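Input (structure):
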C-alpha cells in the first residue's frame, strides 16, 4: 500500500479539509498520515517555522517511498526550505506534491534532480473536478495522464517532447538569482498565477526573460491565470497578450488554457519527467506516463 503523508509547510488550513483529503486518499487505498502541526495555526501559518519544518522533515525522513502532499499554498515554504536536511530523502526518495507556494519545493527538487508533482491540494479536494483528483491518483500510483483541451487564438502550433518544469509564476520570478532558481534549458515550462495585476505579470515575464529562462525552452504551457486585475490606468493588453508578446521572438510551441493552476480542474503534471505536448489550430494535447512513486 502506497504511503501518503500530508503536511502544511505554509499557510494554515481547516482541519475539516485535511480530514476530507485523508478519507479520499484512504478510499483510494493509500495509507495516510497527517503531520502533527498540519492543522495548527500560528498567525498566518500552520505553525511556527520550527513546527512546520519538523513536520516536513519527519515526512521526508520516513524509511519508505511514497508521496508528501502539501495541504495548500499561501506563503511560508521559502522560510523553511534551506533548513531541511535532505540526506534521508536521498536514501528514501518521495515525491512532493502541491501547487502555488509549493513551487518553492518544486524548484528545489528540480535543482536536486528529483521529480515532483504539480497538482491540486487538500485545500481544494472538495471543489475539484473528478478529472483533477483522478489525474493525481494516476501520477502517484502509475499510469498515463492525457489532457485534450481547447485552443486559444494566441496558441503557437508545434510539438515538443521533454521534461516539464515550472509552477506559480510569482514564485518562479521571486526565486530568480537564488539557490533555487529554476533550470529551464531544453524543458517544457508550465506557468500559472492568481490575483495578480496585469502589469505585474508583464514584469515577471520580463524578469524570467532577462534571466535567460525563456530563450531555450522546448515549449510553453500557460495554465489558469485566475482573477487577474487591471490597473486604474489600463495596461492596454490582456494577460495572454502580455505572455505571447514576451515570447514572440522564439519558435517553440505555446499553449494557453492548460487545465492546471488556481482552478477547480487542476490536473497533475509530473515535473522533472518527460511529457509530450502537441499544439494544433484546434487545441492541444498533453500526454505523460507515470511509473508511480
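Output (sequence):
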Amino acid at each position: 500500500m502506497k504511503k501518503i503523508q500530508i503536511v502544511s509547510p505554509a499557510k494554515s488550513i481547516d482541519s475539516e479539509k485535511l480530514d476530507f483529503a485523508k478519507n479520499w486518499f484512504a478510499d483510494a487505498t493509500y495509507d495516510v498520515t497527517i503531520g502533527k502541526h498540519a492543522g495548527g495555526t500560528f498567525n498566518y501559518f500552520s505553525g511556527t517555522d520550527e513546527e512546520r519544518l519538523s513536520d516536513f522533515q519527519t515526512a521526508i525522513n520516513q524509511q519508505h517511498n511514497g508521496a508528501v502532499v502539501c495541504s495548500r499554498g499561501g506563503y511560508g515554504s521559502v522560510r523553511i526550505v534551506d533548513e531541511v536536511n535532505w540526506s534521508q530523502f536521498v536514501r528514501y526518495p518521495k515525491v512532493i506534491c502541491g501547487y502555488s507556494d509549493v513551487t518553492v519545493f518544486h524548484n528545489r527538487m528540480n535543482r536536486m534532480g528529483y521529480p515532483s508533482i504539480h497538482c491540486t491540494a487538500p485545500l481544494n479536494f472538495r471543489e475539484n473536478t473528478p478529472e483533477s483528483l483522478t489525474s493525481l491518483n494516476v501520477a502517484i500510483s502509475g499510469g498515463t495522464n492525457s489532457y485534450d483541451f481547447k485552443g486559444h487564438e494566441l496558441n503557437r502550433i508545434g510539438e515538443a517532447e521533454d521534461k516539464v518544469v515550472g509552477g506559480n509564476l510569482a514564485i518562479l520570478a521571486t526565486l530568480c538569482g537564488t539557490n533555487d532558481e529554476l533550470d529551464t534549458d531544453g524543458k517544457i515550462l508550465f506557468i500559472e498565477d492568481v490575483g495578480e495585476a496585469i502589469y505585474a505579470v508583464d514584469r515577471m515575464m520580463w524578469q524570467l526573460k532577462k534571466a535567460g529562462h525563456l530563450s531555450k525552452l522546448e515549449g510553453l504551457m500557460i495554465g489558469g491565470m485566475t482573477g487577474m486585475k487591471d490597473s486604474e490606468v489600463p495596461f492596454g493588453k490582456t494577460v495572454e497578450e502580455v505572455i505571447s508578446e514576451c515570447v514572440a521572438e522564439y519558435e517553440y510551441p505555446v499553449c494557453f488554457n492548460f487545465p492546471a493552476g488556481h482552478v477547480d480542474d487542476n490536473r497533475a503534471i509530473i515535473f522533472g519527467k518527460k511529457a509530450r505536448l502537441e499544439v494544433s489550430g484546434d487545441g492541444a494535447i498533453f500526454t505523460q506516463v507515470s511509473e508511480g512513486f
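Notes: Helices lie at 15-27, 49-61, 87-91, 103-112, 130-141, 169-174, 198-210, 239-246. The radius of gyration is 18 Å.
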